[in-house]
Design goal:
Elements: H1 27-32, H2 52-90, H3 95-109, H4 116-139
Helix pairs in contact: 2-3, 3-4
Length: 140
């Protein structure tokens, strides 16, 4: 791209030439330049003694992954339970859905770190699904 013309730059209004400036207060500025209190020296830094702290951080990441997977699986279980509820309201639950629910509950137990209360809830859901499955199979 070619520049064909340029406008001249005009000088700014109010520009002063270098010279002496007026003194505002004289000693007030000079008082700020006086020597300040002596600063303290830098404290020694502590070196990282080993890599254990880094390894523990990595281990926390894997437990977070387990928690995420457990939460996702729990949400899937809740979705299946909601479908079972809708099926019950509609008049019948498919056998395949009850089998799927029982299998999901067995897999849910495999996640490490599940609280005793959660295990109790999982057992109740699994037992109920198996009872309902047995009832359906008895009538078929």
């Amino acid at each position: 791209m070619k520049i064909k013309s340029t406008d001249s730059v005009s000088s700014s209004v109010g520009v002063r030439k270098a010279g002496k400036t007026k003194s505002a207060g004289g000693s007030s500025f000079a008082s700020h330049l006086q020597e300040t209190e002596e600063t303290q020296g830098v404290m020694s830094t502590s070196a990282v003694s080993n890599v254990d702290s880094l390894l523990s951080l990595q281990a926390m990441g894997s437990s977070t992954d387990k928690n995420t997977k457990a939460r996702q699986h729990g949400e899937e279980v809740l979705d299946v339970l909601e479908r079972v509820l809708h099926d019950l309201l509609a008049g019948g639950v498919p056998v395949s859905r009850l089998r799927n629910l029982a299998d999901m509950m067995q897999r849910q137990r495999e996640y490490a770190g599940v609280s005793p209360k959660m295990l109790e809830i999982i057992d109740e859901i699994e037992t109920r699904a198996l009872v309902e499955l047995a009832k359906l199979e008895a009538y078929l």
